[in-house]
Structures are given as structure tokens and as C-alpha cells.
Design goal:
By secondary structure, the protein is an alpha/beta fold. It has two domains: 150 residues, Rossmann fold; 88 residues. The chain contains seven helices and seven strands, in the order αβββαβαβαβαβαα. Helix 3 runs parallel beside helix 4 and helix 6 packs antiparallel against helix 7. The radius of gyration is 38 Å and the shape is rod-shaped. The two termini are 52 Å apart.
């Protein structure tokens, strides 16, 4: 068994540089082989890849081959159920996912990720004649799929990098559209405030003109009553006229203050320029 495993591994990575093999952490009771690159590199810039496949030879071969490129930090597990447990705790840049596995299938894992709103690009590994599965996987949001009989180090490496770049591009486009929607909503709010200011200004002018005319009419009626009435009537009506005049002045003052406040607000809004962020 071990001879077969290492034969497949070294056939898969025959063009890779010398490396050191050691045993990594265990997922679902299966020892996963980790590869320590010959020349150490910082993991900060390496893509984190999770490989999920129940076939030990394929899973270990893929893991070692990817690590020997010095471009990836790789973990692997042997079932969909163990993949779910790993994804609950860790985050990855790309997932390489087999479909036909005991327990949860690859499609089941995709559905779980969708329910969890987990946005990680996935490459589905399918067997020959599994085109229907590939189509279904694409409907579930898979970025790419590779047949096992066509799988090799160069193709998988290229697929992972391509999928990650497409994912970053889509995310950037999504963030830009979201920002544009927010800016559009803010602009609508500013436009609505501008309309409000215009309406307040126009109505305020009409009300002030009406109050001014009402005040003039009150003065004329007051003068007329003063001339045609006796002292008793004047003593009875004058307080009422004064009260009405005070009410008119109070309303006029309130309308004027509202117009002035609206003008101050709109002048401040005119200083606000909604500009989208520039791409860096």
C-alpha cells in the first residue's frame, strides 16, 4: 500500500524540487501528509487550500504536489463531514472538493456552505462521465471543475490561481457595486433635501406674504373700529386685536426661522461632494 501511495505521489510531482515529508494534523482519523518546502517561505502570501477527497492516494498526492510548488498552504480531509467541521473553525482561499464520498457528498458540502453564507471559491473534482454532476455543481456556485483522469500538478495549480483571481475580481466588483448603491442612495437623500428646501422656501414666502396682508387688514379694521366705536367697545375689542397681531407676528417669525434654517442646511449640503472611491 505505501509503495503504491508513494509511486503515485512522486509520479504526480516528478518535476518538483526536493522536499521533506512529515505528518500533519489528523482530520477524521486519517493522517494527512504535509510537505515542508526545501526553501522556507513566509505563509503570509501563500494561498490556503483545503483538499477534500476520500481516496487517500489522490488526496495525499494532491496535497504534496501543491506544497512542493511553494505557493500554497494545504490542509486535507477525507470526507464531506470532516470538511464541514474544518470549515467551521478555519478559513481558506480555495477548496478542492471531491463529490462522491461516504456521508456528505461534495454537493451536500456546497449546499451547507450556501446556507452558512460562506463565500469561498470551490473547484469540484469529478470522475469521467460525471458531466451532470459538474453542471449541478456549477449551479451551486462552483468556479471550476476538473476530471480526475485529467488531473495533474500543472493543471490544478493553474486552476487554483485562476479561480482565486476570479473570486477576488468578482468580490471587488461586488464591493464597488455596493458602494455605488450606497452613494446613489445618499445622492437621492440629498436631492430629496434639496426639494424639501425649495418647497419650504416657496411655501414660506407665500405664508409670509399672506401674514403680511392679514396684518395690514387687522390694522385697517382696528382703525375703523376705533373711529366708529365708543370707549366701551374700544376697551372690549382692542385687546383682541393686539392678541391677533401678536399671533400673526409669532407665526411670521416661526416661518422666517424655518426658511433661514432650511437655507443653512442646504448650504452645508452644497459643500458635500459624493465621489466614489478611486481604484488603487
Amino acid at each position: 500500500m505505501f509503495r503504491l501511495v508513494f509511486f503515485i505521489i512522486f509520479s504526480f510531482v516528478h518535476s518538483s524540487p526536493p522536499s521533506q515529508v512529515y505528518v500533519s494534523r489528523v482530520h477524521a482519523g486519517v493522517f494527512c501528509m504535509n510537505l515542508s518546502p526545501g526553501s522556507p517561505m513566509s505563509n503570509q502570501h501563500l494561498l490556503r487550500v483545503l483538499i477534500v477527497d476520500d481516496e487517500n492516494t489522490i488526496r495525499l498526492g494532491l496535497e504534496m504536489a501543491l506544497k512542493m510548488t511553494n505557493n500554497f498552504v494545504v490542509e486535507s480531509c477525507d470526507s464531506g463531514d470532516s470538511a464541514v467541521e474544518v470549515l467551521k473553525k478555519d478559513n481558506f482561499d480555495v477548496i478542492v472538493l471531491d463529490n462522491r464520498m461516504p456521508g456528505m457528498s461534495g454537493i451536500d458540502v456546497l449546499e451547507w456552505m450556501h446556507e452558512q453564507k460562506m463565500d469561498i471559491p470551490v473547484i469540484m473534482i469529478t470522475g469521467a462521465g460525471s458531466e451532470e454532476i459538474a453542471v449541478e455543481a456549477l449551479k451551486h456556485g462552483v468556479y471550476d471543475y476538473v476530471r480526475k483522469d485529467q488531473l495533474n500538478k500543472e493543471r490544478l495549480t493553474m486552476a487554483i490561481k485562476s479561480v482565486h483571481e476570479r473570486f477576488l475580481y468578482r468580490r471587488a466588483i461586488g464591493e464597488k457595486k455596493a458602494e455605488e448603491r450606497v452613494l446613489s442612495e445618499k445622492q437621492k437623500e440629498l436631492d430629496a433635501l434639496q426639494v424639501f428646501h425649495t418647497t419650504v422656501h416657496s411655501v414660506g414666502q407665500m405664508v409670509e406674504r399672506g401674514l403680511s396682508q392679514l396684518s395690514e387688514k387687522l390694522k385697517k379694521h382696528q382703525e375703523s373700529l376705533l373711529k366708529s366705536s365708543n370707549a366701551e367697545m374700544r376697551e372690549q375689542w382692542l385687546p383682541a386685536f393686539k392678541e391677533l397681531e401678536q399671533d400673526v407676528q409669532m407665526v411670521s417669525s416661526g416661518v422666517s426661522s424655518m426658511r433661514n434654517l432650511s437655507s443653512v442646511v442646504i448650504h452645508k449640503l452644497d459643500e458635500i461632494h459624493i465621489v466614489p472611491k478611486q481604484d488603487t
